[in-house]
Q: What sequence folds into this?
């Protein structure tokens, strides 16, 4: 049996008077990949933005419930600390445009005002880029701008940036939706490798991707968790009629 790392209890998210997430309760397991799947607009991005404490940045937004990491409700913790432990990579990767590849990997340290020696920095950069599967492609031009990389490389650079902060959980929001099949396959293979170091939560509306790369799947519909379980079981013997219909392509 796997270890729980993140325990979500009765999570509700609102935007003004509109409720986006309804009483979502589920847990995530250490060193596993979990897919958040569901039709467009069902609340997938909102869900992971809540986990990363981004949703609340909008003054019109509100979150209630609990997101427990190591016996602490992250909603009561310092949000900067939460974002260090739980990193997020967005649908369109966003390396800092003025920074080199090298400095992009270290951006979290800079933002947090953490000083490191040159040797330590070199080591963090190499280690993070290796884990993100990017080192061999960029090691000879680390001082070029991160934005000069291809879309798939930029995704991996942003993953390296999170890994550099020793993130425990990595949230990926449709990381391959803008990538070609080759770059997509690269990211999918990387997810398997990354699980050695981190727990992965990946939003996707690509069912075959969820089936290929994840251990667990959560199916959301209209802001409600319809079904959660082992990916293989959920895809072969779904418990709910709605999951079955979604998998059969009858909606969404
Ligand atoms: N900043 C926002 N302001 C108003 N409504 C929002 C905002 N963000 C998301 N929503 C609404 O919340 C719902 C869920 O959106 P989202 O989490 O982006 O879904 P998904 O990622 O599954 O496509 C949608 O109805 C969307 O219109
Ligand atoms: Mg989304």
A:
């Amino acid at each position: 049996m796997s270890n729980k790392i993140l325990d979500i209890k009765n999570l509700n998210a609102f935007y003004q008077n509109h409720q986006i997430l309804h009483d979502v309760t589920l847990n995530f397991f250490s060193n596993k990949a979990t897919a958040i799947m569901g039709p467009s607009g069902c609340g997938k991005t909102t869900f992971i933005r809540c986990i990363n404490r981004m949703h609340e940045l909008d003054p019109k937004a509100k979150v209630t419930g609990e997101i427990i990491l190591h016996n602490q409700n992250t909603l009561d913790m310092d949000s900067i600390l939460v974002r260090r432990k739980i990193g997020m990579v967005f649908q369109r990767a966003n390396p800092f445009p003025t920074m080199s590849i090298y400095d992009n990997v270290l951006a979290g340290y800079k933002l947090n005002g953490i000083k490191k020696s040159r040797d330590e920095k070199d080591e963090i950069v190499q280690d993070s880029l290796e884990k993100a599967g990017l080192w061999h492609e960029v090691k000879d031009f680390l001082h070029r701008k991160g934005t000069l990389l291809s879309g798939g490389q930029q995704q991996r650079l942003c993953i390296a940036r999170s890994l550099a902060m020793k993130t425990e959980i990595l949230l990926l929001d449709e990381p391959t939706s803008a990538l070609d099949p080759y770059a997509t396959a690269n990211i999918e293979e990387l997810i398997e490798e990354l699980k050695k170091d981190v727990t992965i939560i990946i939003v996707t509306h690509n069912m075959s991707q969820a089936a290929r790369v994840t251990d667990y799947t959560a199916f959301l519909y209209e802001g409600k968790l319809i079904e959660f379980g082992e990916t293989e079981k959920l895809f072969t013997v779904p418990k709910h009629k709605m999951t079955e219909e979604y998998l059969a392509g009858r909606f969404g």
Q: What stands out?
A: Residues 15, 20, 38, 40-46, 58 surround adenosine-5'-diphosphate (ligand 1) (CB under 6 Å). The chain has eleven helices and ten strands.
